[in-house]
Amino acid sequence: MKPIVALHDVVTPWSDGMEPSDAELDAIEWELPLILADVELLDAEIIVLDRAPSELDERRIRRARRKVLAIRRQLTNQAIAHVPGGAA
Prior knowledge:
By secondary structure, the chain is mainly α.
């Protein structure tokens, strides 16, 4: 049986201190508005897990869903605008 260790080459082929690359940090920064909107939606959904949602809860969830969709649309449009040669 082979033990799996976090810094073992089988699990992680790099061993440069486990820091994200600049490209990964840029991608996270670019997607941060979507990440925060998803967290807001999860918060709204978690609130109503153990009780019936009130009208205010339903509005909060709808607002959070609309925000997530709007940010996804915005990021998709930005990504398409940066594609060389335009989108098909």
